[in-house]
Automatic annotation (TrEMBL):
Protein name per its UniProtKB record: Histidine--tRNA ligase
GO cellular component terms, semicolon-separated: cytoplasm
Family membership noted in the UniProt record: Belongs to the class-II aminoacyl-tRNA synthetase family.
Database matches in CDD domains: HisRS-like_core, HisRS_anticodon
Binding site for L-histidine: E81, G82, T83, R113, Q127, E131, R258, Y262, Y263
Subunit composition and interactions: Homodimer.
GO MF annotation: an example: ATP binding
Source species of the chain: Domibacillus iocasae
Gene Ontology terms describing biological process: histidyl-tRNA aminoacylation
Family matches, as SUPFAM superfamilies: Class II aaRS ABD-related (SSF52954), Class II aaRS and biotin synthetases (SSF55681)
Pfam families: HGTP_anticodon, tRNA-synt_His
Gene name as annotated: hisS
UniProt entry keywords in alphabetical sequence: Aminoacyl-tRNA synthetase, ATP-binding, Cytoplasm, Ligase, Nucleotide-binding, Protein biosynthesis
The EC number(s) this enzyme carries: 6.1.1.21
Amino acid sequence: MSVNIPRGTQDILPGQSEKWQYIESIAKDVCRRYHYKEIRTPIFEHTELFKRSVGDTTDIVQKEMYTFEDRGERSLTLRPEGTAAVVRSFVENKMFGMADQPVKLYYTGPMFRYERPQAGRYRQFVQFGVEAIGSEDPAIDAEVIGLVMDIYKMAGLKKLKLVINSLGDAESRTKHREALIRHFEPHIEEFCGDCQMRLKQNPLRILDCKKDRDHELMKTAPSILDYLNEESKAYFEKVTAYLDAVGIQYTIDPKLVRGLDYYNHTAFEVMSEAEGFGAITTLCGGGRYNGLVQQLGGPESPGIGFAFSIERFIAAMEAEKVEWPIDKGLDCFIVALGDAAKDRSVSLVHELRTAGLSAERDYQDRKMKAQLKASDRQHARFTAILGEDELTENRITVKDMAEGSQDQVPLNELANYLKTKMEAN
Ligand code: AMP
């Protein structure tokens, strides 16, 4: 019996994995410029963490978590998202006491959600995310949004739409919540079972329902922007003014609510507008979570962050047909002929690798023609041929595959010779 890969997961094979590394390297480089540092947290956490932060009424907690009991009868959950764990760690490691606030962090790694798999939606996917915890300066909201837009820009994506909204503070949200209940309650039996439950628990989440998206009452639902108090309004205006100041274009969408409970004030998403991008266009989601640190046992410490998945990032790159500047990556293939040359090629590839070059040799005892073909297939920049004559004369024949030229090089000079030629190009 053969065993297949679990539904909703994928193997990232060579040829694809370079794309992942490329996106991750861009994201990390932008984080460096914005002065965000990496944090690594466990893949699993106590289930309670997600119930308390993501929220009991969310789809994630109710339907999508990979929860299991370990041998010590603790309930653990494979992380469905990154913010909860980062905030837990912030509290546990007393980062709120650090001299420099906000604490600016980024993370990357696999997340797990038991969702219905489709294009762009997996059960295991890799998120890259950023959290800035410890400041309520609207400039940090604009910074975090600017950071993710910079990552996309550096990768070469152009067909993007940034959508922002304010969910307001607690007071604004309470007023809006009451208005939503008044709006939906008389017709709630026309909505799905989930929405009927959401009405009393968290009516804002009705606006996020995939099943009832087209119901007439969705279009006329009270807008949060009409319920923002003066403070929340002023905050939102500052955020947009700072975005204007750094030239970031955005659209305000009062219907944007995020699927997780902990958000308030700024909420945002980045969508792909590339033709041919699948039905799910959201590339990135983020927002402010001012009560979360307290909810998880820390002092008042307001935060904001975002996360995107590498899977959808790559899909957007493919849809926009952006070039991948990926080095095919083999500097030199050593073709060795005869037993003595083959033996010598073992230390020769090692010398090249030690000198920082990527080098390969034959391990299949192939004839010269097959070795030359392998060198070609592997896109070697140089093919170095070591036969018996060369070996006795302590030299090697080096073909520059790009230029079509050929040189005889002393064996102990090979690494330097290749490096000099590569630098000259
Ligand atoms: P969320 O944590 O739900 O706000 O999602 C943030 C981002 O993670 C989304 O904008 C997507 O880029 C990505 N994402 C969420 N769920 C999935 C999934 N099941 N498969 C792939 N990417 C996902």
